[in-house]
Design goal:
Four Helix Bundle (Hemerythrin (Met), subunit A); two-stranded antiparallel sheet; 4 helices
């Protein structure tokens, strides 16, 4: 997590999203067999590649013209985000980067004065702060899914992403990872 004290909401949420992006990347790096990025555990689950496609599509829709258009863009095919994901690690990571670029560019364009403005997602009015909080929650939810799957596929060689099990007392004062994936 961010270790720099700040009273800037925008600075804090930007650091938080960078943190979640890095957690996801560190989990993805531990998957040795690229085919596992496409594995679906059961009929109600999604592969890592599909989760990334959905997350990227969501970020593109939400952050493109964030202050001036509804966050659910008419050209978004949400259902299509759960079909035919990219097939190679390079393609999957390109989709990943594109989504995050939309989020970080959108955040960078905001000022503190924008936080009380009203934006819309599916015609629902939200303050900018509410919309950002909603995006952070959505991202962290899906990063958690990615970490779960990566940990499952990498169980024999998994390296903890935060404080390892039974090591909390060794890292006292450091981020305990209590709200973060192991």
């Amino acid at each position: 997590m961010a270790t720099e004290f700040t009273t800037s909401y925008l600075q804090d949420v930007t650091a938080l999203l960078h943190y979640y992006k890095r957690i996801g990347e560190r989990a993805l790096e531990q998957i040795r067999d690229d085919a596992e990025l496409l594995v679906v555990l059961d009929d109600e689950s999604n592969s890592i590649a599909t989760i990334i496609k959905h997350l990227s599509g969501n970020m593109r829709s939400r952050w493109t013209n964030f202050l001036t258009t509804d966050g659910e863009k008419p050209d978004r095919n949400r259902d299509g985000e759960f079909e035919a994901p990219a097939k190679t690690r390079a393609e999957i990571m390109a989709v990943w980067e594109l989504g995050w670029r939309h989020a970080f560019d959108g955040l960078a364009a905001l000022s503190d004065a924008d936080l009380a403005r009203t934006v819309y997602i599916r015609k629902e009015p939200l303050s900018v702060t509410q919309a950002i909080n909603r995006q952070i929650t959505h991202c962290s939810y899906h990063i958690g899914q990615i970490v779960f799957l990566a940990k499952h596929f990498s169980s024999g060689h998994w390296n903890a992403l935060t404080t390892p099990r039974r090591k909390s007392s060794v890292t006292a004062g450091a981020d305990s990872g209590s709200a973060s994936p192991r």
